[in-house]
Amino acid sequence: MARRALAGIGFFLVATLLFGIMDALIKHLTTDYGTWQIMFFRAAFSLLPIGLLIMLTGGISSLRTKSVTAHAARSLMGVAAAYGFFFAFGVMPLADVYAIGFAAPLFMTALSVPVLKEKVGWRRWLAVLVGFGGVMVMLRPGQGMFSLLALIPLAAAFFYALSMLFVRALSRTETNGAITFYFVTTMGVISGVCMIPGWRTPDATGLALLALVGVVGGLAQIVFTQAFRLAAPSLLAPFEYVAMIWAAGFGYIFFAEVPDTAIWTGCAIVAASGLYIIHRETVLHRQAAMATGADGETIR
Questions:
Q1: pLDDT for residue 270
Q2: Which residue, 112, 109, 110, 102, is CA-closest to 157?
Q3: How far apart are CA 293 and CA 295, in angstroms?
Q4: d(Cα 133, Cα 138) in Å, to the nearest integer?
Q5: Domain residue spans of the chain
Q6: How far apart are CA 89 and CA 97, in angstroms?
Q7: What was the pLDDT predicted at 168?
Q8: How many Å apart are CA 133 and CA 274, to the nearest integer?
Q9: Within 13 Å of residue 51, how many CA atoms lie on the same side as its CB?
């Protein structure tokens, strides 16, 4: 079990690195191509590694679904999140987008009440409020245009949180291959239509980079999925903040971006509140498991 956990952490760290590489490539490509066109190539070429995953984990039969509506909702929320993040990469520093995007776990906690009918105690609500205080530090209310731009990744984090709640519900009956396949297919169809007015024919270098975005993104999703098969989400979640290191590093090396004090301060507050929420959920799950072992019933 210890080896599986360590392997899971290793896969997770590799996934965050691959996603960081993909996002840096997207930021570079936004100078020449529209957001919808980048999303289309991201979806199209990610089907290569995702298709391999499907063939290795049950084939076409693994795509059978019991909830078309839930897949559609998850996919639409995911497309909205992807568009927001991809667009933000073109107008904001990488590390700034990542830091604000860390609000997603806070949104997930708040939205789990109306969407999944879960109970959230006062400690987690307090952590959510503190976390959003950290988001406000990064947004800098009253700073004018920057705060308006910063709302884009914040909205993307909101839609991402919604999509992850649907994934949590879908995972009870659907395969990982099916959830991923229907998402990227939906992204490909929507972005394929929306990119037509702003289409720009890529040259050889551009085509190679656009294809690389899709392949790297698809591989990242596979590695990400494998990480969660080997280790519990509560164990992996704290390592998500390692992504900030990749974002700050790539931003500095390739785009000469340096996050300011407000971003680092707000990110630290959000990370601390997110880690506390993870801690509380772990404690509650442990208590529920102990209660189940004691009297055969799960305490909600």
A1: 86
A2: 102
A3: 6
A4: 9
A5: 2-295
A6: 7
A7: 77
A8: 12
A9: 9
